[in-house]
Each structure stands twice: as C-alpha cells, then as structure tokens.
Design a protein that fits this description.
Strand order of the largest sheet: 6-7-8-3-9-10
Keywords: ATP-binding, Nucleotide-binding, Transport
Oligomer: single chain
Number of helices: 9
CATH architecture of the largest domain: 3-Layer(aba) Sandwich
Function: Involved in beta-(1-->2)glucan export. Transmembrane domains (TMD) form a pore in the inner membrane and the ATP-binding domain (NBD) is responsible for energy generation.
Number of domains: 2
CATH superfamily of the largest domain: P-loop containing nucleotide triphosphate hydrolases
Helix content: 25-40%
GO molecular function, one term: ATP hydrolysis activity
Shape: globular
Bound molecules: adenosine-5'-triphosphate
GO cellular component, one term: plasma membrane
GO biological process, one term: L-valine import across plasma membrane
CATH topology of the largest domain: Rossmann fold
Order of helices and strands: EEEHEEHEHHHEHEHEEHH
Length: 253
Amino acid sequence: MTMLLSIQSLCKTFGGLEVVRDLSFDVPDGTATALIGPNGAGKTTVFNLISGVYPVTSGSIRMCGVDIVDLPSRHRIGRGIARSFQNIRLIPRLSVIDNLLIGQHVKLKRPLDVLRPFRFARDHEWIRAAKAELSAFGLSQYDDEPVGLLPYGVRKRVDLIRATLSSPSLLMLDEPAAGLNASETRELHRHLDILRERGTTLLIIEHDMHFIRSICEQIVVLNFGCKIAEGPFDQVRTDQQVSEAYLGTERAT
Ligand SMILES: Nc1ncnc2c1ncn2[C@@H]1O[C@H](COP(=O)(O)OP(=O)(O)OP(=O)(O)O)[C@@H](O)[C@H]1O
C-alpha cells in the first residue's frame, strides 16, 4: 500500500510545553484516517504542523516520500495538502461564488494578481470551476447567496468546496461534523463519499464516533501529544488505554 503522508518522530513544544511527543503514523493513499483523542490532546496542533502553520520542533512529515517540514505553508498546497478549520473561514456578506474565488488566490503566481478584476469576466475558468463544483455537490441554488444567510450545514460544505477546489490529494478536516444536525451530517457524509470516489485521501479530527466509524478505515488515538493506539475502529475501541483516556468518558459510543 502506498503511503501518501508519513509522519515520523514528530515533536512540538510551545515554550516549555510539549504538545506533540515523538508521534509517528502513516496515512495510506486513498484511505480515510481519523485522529481522535480528548480535548487538548494535540490533534489540531498536528494539523497545524502538517499544513505548515507552525514549524516543527523535530521530526519529519513526508508527502509522497518527500519531506515537507521546511516548505512554507502555501507551497504545501501545491504538494496536494488542503484543510478546513474548526471555525468556518468564509466571508459572510460575500456570495458563495465570491468566497470560492477568494479561496483560489493561492493559485496566483504573483501576490498583486489578487487585484485583477476576474470577478467580472463571467466565463473565467475559476468561476466555471467553482460553479461546476457547486453543481457536483448539489449546491448550485446557492451560487449567488450571501454565505451569512445560508444554513450552517450548507456553509460547512461550501467551506469544504473552498478547500477542495485546489484538487488536493490529502484533505484534512478539523471537526467537520461539529454543530451539524442529523440530516446535515448525512449530507456531509455523502459529500465526503464523493470526494473519496474521486480518490481524495482524508485525515479527519472528529469527536462524533458514529461518523468516524462509518467513514474511516484507520484510527490514530492521541493523549497528551502521544499516540496511545492505532488501528481499525473496533480494535481501537476495545483498547483499555483508549477507554480510560477517551472513549470510556461521556463521549462513549
Ligand atoms: N500556539 C500555541 N501556543 C501555546 N500552546 C498551544 C498553542 N496551540 C496549542 N497549544 C496547546 O497545545 C495543547 C494541544 O492543543 P490542540 O488544540 O492541539 O488540542 P486538540 O487535541 O486539538 O484539542 P480540541 O479537541 O479541544 O480541539 C493545548 O494544551 C493547547 O493549549
């Protein structure tokens, strides 16, 4: 099995605080992996290290065999990495299409190109791509709606489309199902199924264990920045350390 992402002996300290400790795990190409653990375990920090928001203290992060720890964050997008954040990062008063166009600025060769009035070129390739993607996910009716007026579940999926317009090979999702009701969670599930059919590899932080169980083949469990278990859901679920640290709490499935 080919490894898309390979993390080896990753460490991160903030001042004297060790937040990620000697963490190693692989994400096989074309699969979905969950990163779970109690609040403060270091999950979002791992995402920030992979996407380049923070420099690593030590260790390696390989994408398709190439160490990317020294690459600036925007160049990691070029390596096929995209992510969503816990809080939706869209501009509420702008339309869905305009938000998706803003998300495309990472493709610009020169920073000042962001001032080009591509919004007025109605057949610009970025507009066509954004519309095609909204249509593929059944969201065309919202093209010109201000994002702030949309139901929360639709906003989350627009945010997902913003992340996937760069055609990433690895999509990292930070608590995608948080705050969604049951039908919105089902829509999100369908959305992710389509991405998986396209071959996108997923790495997901999530507290909803039913959601994780139905999507992810592999689970990596963190506690205090260390990996305490790894494997298929049913194996991890019965692990004593995992029960004590996490699944045995009020969030048990
Ligand atoms: N920039 C930072 N500076 C200092 N400490 C930080 C920073 N970012 C995170 N931390 C600390 O690192 C630890 C892990 O935080 P992190 O957000 O990665 O955990 P998490 O597992 O994602 O938690 P949650 O499930 O609540 O989102 C926490 O103790 C947090 O306070």
